[in-house]
Amino acid sequence: MSYKIRINGTAPAWPLLLEGTHAFYEPGNITGMGSASYSIISVSDNEEASINWEILIDAGHNTVPFLLNNGNRIPNAIMLTHGHPDHILGVDWIVQSYRFKHKKSKNKFPVYCTYGVWRMLMQTYSYLESYIELRELFPGQKRYIDETSDLCVIPYPVFHGQGAFGSSMFYFKSNTLNFCPLIITGDLLCALLRKNDLKTLSDAGVLIIDTNNRFPDPESNHMSFARNSPHEKNINKRLQQWFDRMNTSSLIAPHFTFGQKKNVKTYFDEFISDWHHINEIPHCILDFLNMIPIPAVFLSHYWGIYDEVHYGEKLLNPRELETWANKLAQQDGLNTIQIHVPKPGDYITLQEKSIKQNHERV
User: Fold this and answer.
1) Which CATH number fits domain 2-358: 3.60.15.10, 1.10.230.10, 3.10.350.10, 3.40.50.2300?
2) Can you tell me whether residue 277 is helix, strand or coil?
3) d(CA 75, CA 64)
């Protein structure tokens, strides 16, 4: 048995604006403009290489058409990082497909997410409540995914703006030696990790991370790759202004919008005690990797419009983004890390040995 993650989409909500152009996205390549989405897949090691199970992480624009063209298979479960439309629009189509395929069964389709994400999903698709079973996730708590053999997930809360309730990044692990631990951030400006969590996450061999901007723009509620303005070594002015008006209470507020649960409060009590000021928390990918050095990094969700607006920096194509990111990582002393820019349809092997030694994408 082997494990892979398939890239179903890598784009932000509006990758190519109408009447616009973009170096990264081609008007005729609709598949290339599908919202960021991924499938963790278990494959039997036989001649047919049949799929044992598939867990879908996020389902936004073009996710279902991609699934139709890549096996036409209903995932065994969906996991949602947050409740924004470009990450949940495909849930309806998938659940309805499951419902009509199993119309004689009373089983509901499993969706794994935090309660805040669930409430956002129900605000959009209230009529699906009778067809979905919520498998609730809690920050920092391991949960096995019932539809798999032994895959488990630990969700860690993130800040993706005041309107992104219960947003999380996912750390996946398995007891099998063939599975390389994996982190998928979803969309975020910063991860709300406790200091002890850094050690847990350092076991990961693969990181798929939101890279909406190359340079800081906290108003976009997305993490940048670099910490400073282009060609400057001092702290970024836009980021400093954001630090001056925010605090840890502001960052955790979206996780308490629908009330306080004891285990959620306990997590954030520890988080607040660990960090004296929010500028200690990594707010860019380079800082994240300096705290948690992960050998194989895959950049997703690139848009770059704010780099052009605020810094006059050109939009990059995939090859340029990959070259630029690897160069900055090496300049930052991250010489053991290899950065990739995947495209929809790519597979990443999750066999621990191949990832850690070769950093290969297949």
Assistant:
1) 3.60.15.10
2) coil
3) 10
| Length of the chain (residues) | 362
* Phi/psi of residue 192, nearest 5 degrees: -95, 70
For residue 317, count CB atoms less than 10 angstroms from its CB and return exposed for 0-12, middle for 13-18, buried for 19 or more. Answer: middle
Q: Where are the alpha helices (DSSP H) in the chain?
A: 63-69, 85-88, 91-101, 115-124, 195-201, 237-245, 248-252, 262-274, 285-291, 305-311, 318-331, 352-358
* CB contact set of 282 (below 8 Å; sequence gap of 6+): 190, 191, 288, 290, 291
What does each of the 362 residues of the chain score in pLDDT, given as a tens digit? 889 999 999 999 999 999 999 999 999 999 999 999 999 999 987 656 689 999 999 999 999 999 999 999 999 999 999 999 999 999 999 999 999 999 888 899 999 999 999 999 999 999 999 999 999 999 999 999 999 988 999 999 999 999 999 999 999 999 886 899 999 999 999 999 999 999 999 999 999 999 999 999 999 999 999 999 997 777 788 999 999 999 999 999 999 998 778 889 999 999 999 998 999 999 999 999 999 999 999 999 999 999 999 999 999 999 999 999 999 999 999 999 999 999 999 999 987 644 443 344 43
User: Residue 226 and residue 215: Cα distance in Å, rounded?
Assistant: 5
In this structure, which amino acid lies at residue 88? I
So where are the chain's domains?
2-358
Residue 245 dihedral angles phi and psi, to the nearest 5°:
-110, -5
